[in-house]
Design brief:
heterodimer; A: 15 helices; B: alpha+beta; 2 domains; four-stranded mixed sheet; 5 helices
C-alpha cells in the first residue's frame, strides 16, 4: 500500500467518525492496594458494574458503601495512582463471544492469550446471568459419554448434569476431565475448559494434549493462571459459563469443566478479605455458597420451546488429605448432582482411574444411561458392592465357601476391567461388550493378570465379528436377541482361542 | 453514645444555621462543639459535606468549568442556562479553571458527572475509534 493510499484510507475513516459526547459519571481513586481500589464519587453505580481506569484497565464495583465504592481491578493495577479518574460504564461486566472462539485460549475477560491474533466478535454476553427457570428446563435423559468405563457404567453423567470430581492432589482429577473432552469428538458437544489458578505449565500440557487428540476444534480454554490477579480467577468460571451459554443458545450441548473450584473459592476469599467483608468459617465470606451455587445452577438442559441445548458441568474440587468434610467440598457436594470420588490409596494400588466406587454417586445420571449399558451395569454395581464387603474378610482366612470365592474372583476381575489408561477413552459399544462378557461370567476362568489382554483382544475381535450387536447398541441403544446370540458366539470363539494360546 | 458520622454533623450544622439568631454566636457554638467532641481534625471533611448539603437543599449547582483560556460571558451564560435546565437548579455557582493541556473546548464537572467537550477528549475518542476499527 502506498503512502497516498494510507492517507486516503485514514481520511475516509476520519470522515466516518462521529462522536457523541455524553455526560459521564466519574469518580476519583482514593487508595489502591492488592488489586483493589477504593473510589469516591460514582454516585449512581450499580453492583458489579464495569468501570474504566485511565490506563485502560477495567474493574468491577463490588462494594457499594455510603460514599465509597470498592472496585476489583482486572489486570495491572501498579499504574493506577491516587486521584486517577474512574469512569462508570453503565454496563455489567461482559465478554465478547463468537463462533470463532472455538479452538482458542482466552483469559478471564475474553482476550485471547494464545498468540493467534484477535477474535472477531460481534456479540457480548454478560458474565453474571440468572440461571434458566424451572419452566424452561427438561430433566436429564441424554448421556454424556466420557469414555471412561467406571464412570459411564457406574456413575453415569447426563447432559445438563453437574457432577463433581473430587479428590486429593495427584489423583487424576484433571485426567478424567481431559479424557472426557477427548471422547466428545463426533458426539455433537462443545467443550469449555476453565483453568483457575493453575500453573501455566499445566495449562500448556492440557492444551497440547487436546490439540494432539484433535479436541481443540470443539474446545475453548478459559484461563486465569496462578500468576494472575485474584480478581481474574474470581470471574474466570463465570466467563466460561457465559461462553457455554452462547453455544447453548444456539441449541448446542456444552460440557464445561471448572478446574478447580477450591482455588476459585480461595481467590474469592482473598478479594472478600481485602474488601473487609467479615470472614466466616475457614475465613471464607458468608456468600461463598452462593458463589458456587449460582455458577453451577447455570448448568441445565433446556427444553425445545426455549431453544434446547444443555450445559453439563464437571466442577473439580481438590481436598486436603482426603478431607471431604471441609467447608468448600461439603458445599459443592451439596450443590452438585453427585460426585466422582478419587482416592490416593487406590491410585497407588494401581487402580486408575482411582475412583472409589463406594463413595461415588450420580443422582440423576442413571436416567440418562442407554438401555444396553443399564442392563450390564446393574449387575456390575451389585457385584462390586458384594466384593468390597467380602474383600476385608477374605484377608483373614483361606477357608471360604464356593459362592464367596466366586464373588471374590468376579470382583477382582471387575476391578481389573474397570482399570483404564489415561487418554484412552473407550467407545460406549465396546464398554457394553466388555461388561457383558464380565457380568455373564465369560471372564471367570481367565487369569486376573491376563484380563487386560483378554479385554483388548476381545474388542478387536468382536469389532470384526459382532457387527450386528454393535450396530444395534449404537443405533437402537439396546441389543436384540439376534445381536446377543452373535456376541455370545463371538466371545466364546475368542475365549477358546485366547485360552489355548 | 451513638457514633455521629461527619455527614450527620454537617446536616445538623446546616439545619441549625437556618434558625434565626446571632450568626457570630452560632459559629462560635459550632466550633466549641467540634472542639468538645474532639472533631476539629475532621473539619475539612465536614465542610465539604456541609457544602454539598447546602447546595442540595438550596438547589445550587456547583460547576467546575475547565478550558484553555478564559471563557466569554456569552458562553458562560449559555452554559448556565443549559446546566440549570439539566439539573433543575436555581443558581449555578461557577468555578473556573484554566488548563492548557485540554487543547480546546471546555469541560464541565458537576458533582461526579463530567461533560467533556474538550479537543483532547475528542482526539482520544478518535484514537480509540481508529485503533479499534483497524482490528
Amino acid at each position: 500500500m502506498s503512502t497516498n493510499n494510507i492517507v486516503e484510507n485514514l481520511k475516509r475513516e476520519i470522515e466516518n467518525f462521529s462522536i457523541q459526547i455524553k455526560a459521564e459519571k466519574i469518580g476519583k481513586v482514593l487508595e489502591v492496594f492488592d488489586g483493589i481500589a477504593k473510589v469516591s464519587g460514582l454516585s449512581d453505580i450499580k453492583s458489579s458494574e464495569m468501570v474504566a481506569f485511565p490506563n485502560g484497565a477495567a474493574g468491577v464495583a463490588l462494594n457499594l458503601e455510603e460514599d465509597l465504592v470498592g472496585v476489583i481491578i482486572f489486570g495491572d493495577f501498579s499504574k493506577i495512582k491516587e486521584g486517577d479518574e474512574v469512569k462508570a460504564t453503565g454496563r455489567i461486566l461482559e465478554i465478547p463471544v463468537s463462533d470463532d472462539i472455538l479452538g482458542r485460549v482466552v483469559n478471564a475477560i475474553g482476550t485471547p492469550i494464545d498468540g493467534k491474533g484477535a477474535i472477531k466478535a460481534n456479540k457480548t454476553y454478560p458474565i453474571e446471568k440468572v440461571a434458566p427457570g424451572v419452566v424452561t428446563r427438561l430433566s436429564v435423559d441424554q448421556p454424556v459419554a466420557t469414555g471412561i468405563k467406571v464412570i459411564d457404567a457406574i456413575i453415569p453423567v447426563g447432559r445438563g448434569q453437574r457432577e463433581l470430581i473430587i479428590g486429593d492432589r495427584q489423583t487424576g482429577k484433571t485426567a478424567i476431565a481431559i479424557d472426557a473432552i477427548l471422547n466428545q469428538k463426533g458426539q455433537n458437544m462443545i467443550c469449555v475448559y476453565v483453568s483457575i489458578g493453575q500453573k501455566d505449565s499445566k495449562l500448556r500440557k492440557v492444551e497440547a494434549r487436546l490439540e494432539e487428540g484433535g479436541a481443540m476444534a470443539y474446545t475453548v480454554i478459559v484461563s486465569a493462571g496462578a500468576s494472575e490477579a485474584a480478581s481474574l480467577a474470581y470471574i474466570a468460571p463465570y466467563t466460561g459459563v457465559s461462553i457455554a451459554e452462547y453455544f447453548m443458545d444456539q441449541g448446542k450441548d456444552v460440557l464445561i469443566i471448572y478446574d478447580d473450584l477450591s482455588k476459585h473459592a480461595v481467590a474469592y476469599r482473598e478479594i472478600s478479605l481485602l474488601l473487609r467483608r467479615p470472614p466466616g468459617r475457614e475465613a471464607y465470606p458468608g456468600d461463598v455458597f452462593y458463589l458456587h451455587s449460582r455458577l453451577l445452577e447455570r448448568a441445565c438442559r433446556r427444553n425445545e420451546k426455549y431453544g434446547g441445548g444443555s450445559i453439563t458441568a464437571l466442577p473439580i474440587i481438590e481436598t486436603q488429605a482426603g478431607d471431604i468434610s471441609a467447608y468448600i467440598p461439603t458445599n459443592v457436594i451439596s450443590i452438585t448432582d453427585g460426585q466422582i470420588f478419587l482416592e490416593t490409596d487406590l491410585f497407588y494400588k494401581g487402580i486408575r482411574p482411582a475412583v472409589n466406587v463406594g463413595s461415588s454417586v450420580s443422582r440423576v445420571g442413571g436416567d440418562a444411561q442407554i438401555k444396553a449399558m443399564k442392563k450390564v451395569s446393574g449387575t456390575l454395581k451389585l457385584e462390586l458392592a458384594q466384593f468390597r464387603e467380602l474383600e476385608a474378610f477374605s484377608q483373614f482366612g483361606s477357608d471360604l465357601d464356593d459362592s464367596t470365592k466366586r464373588t471374590l474372583e468376579r470382583g477382582k476381575r471387575a476391578v481389573e476391567v474397570l482399570k483404564q489408561l489415561q487418554y484412552a477413552p473407550v467407545k460406549t459399544e465396546h464398554q457394553v461388550a466388555t461388561l457383558y462378557a464380565l457380568t455373564k461370567g465369560y471372564m471367570d476362568d481367565v487369569p486376573v493378570e491376563k484380563i487386560k489382554a483378554f479385554e483388548n483382544g476381545l474388542i478387536e475381535y468382536s469389532e470384526r465379528n459382532a457387527k450386528v450387536f454393535y450396530k444395534e447398541v449404537a443405533e437402537k441403544k439396546m441389543w436384540s436377541d439376534k445381536g446377543e446370540e452373535e456376541l455370545k458366539k463371538v466371545i466364546e470363539d475368542f475365549k477358546s482361542n485366547f485360552l489355548a494360546r | 453514645m451513638a457514633v455521629l458520622s461527619n455527614n450527620n454533623i454537617a446536616r445538623a450544622i446546616y439545619l441549625a444555621s437556618k434558625e434565626e439568631g446571632n450568626k457570630a454566636e452560632f459559629y462560635e457554638k459550632v466550633v466549641r462543639f467540634l472542639a468538645k467532641r474532639k472533631l476539629l481534625s475532621k473539619t475539612a471533611d465536614i465542610l465539604v459535606r456541609l457544602d454539598k448539603i447546602a447546595n442540595d437543599e438550596e438547589k445550587i449547582i456547583s460547576a467546575k468549568v475547565s478550558s484553555v483560556e478564559k471563557i466569554s460571558e456569552k458562553t458562560k451564560k449559555d452554559i448556565t442556562e443549559a446546566l440549570s435546565k439539566r439539573y433543575e437548579g436555581r443558581r449555578v455557582a461557577f468555578k473556573e479553571n484554566i488548563d492548557e493541556k485540554l487543547l480546546g473546548g471546555f469541560r464541565i464537572e458537576v458533582n461526579d458527572e463530567v461533560i467533556d467537550l474538550t479537543l483532547k477528549n475528542r482526539m482520544k475518542k478518535l484514537q480509540e475509534y481508529l485503533t479499534h476499527s483497524a482490528k
